[in-house]
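User: My instructor asked us to take a sequence, write out its structure as C-alpha cells, and then describe one feature of it. I'm not sure where to start. Here is the sequence I was given:
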Amino acid sequence: EAAHKATAARLEAIEEVAEAHTARMDVMLADAEAAQKATAARLEAIEEVAEAHAARMDVMEADAEAAQKAHAERMDEMAADTEAMQKAHDARMDLIDAAA
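Assistant: Let's start with the prediction itself. The C-alpha cells for your sequence are:
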C-alpha cells in the first residue's frame, strides 16, 4: 500500500512537471509567433520605405532630365541669339564700310 501511494505520488508529480513543461512550451511558442509577426511587420515597413525611396529617386531622375533638357534648349537659344546678333553686327559694319 505504501509503495502504491508512493508510485501514485510520483506519477502525480510527473504529471505536474509535464503540465508545467507544456505551459512553458505554449508560452515559448506564443513568444516565437509574436516575434515572427513583429519581424514580418518590420520587413514590410522596410519594403514600403524602399519603394517610396525608389519612387522619389524616379521623380528626382525625371526632374534632373527635364532640367538638363531645358538647360540644353536655353543654351541652343542663346547660341542662336548670339549668331543672329553677330550677323546683325556684321551687316551694320558692312553698311558702315560701304558708306565710308
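For the description part of your assignment, you could build on this observation: The radius of gyration is 43 Å. Try explaining in your own words what that tells you about the chain.
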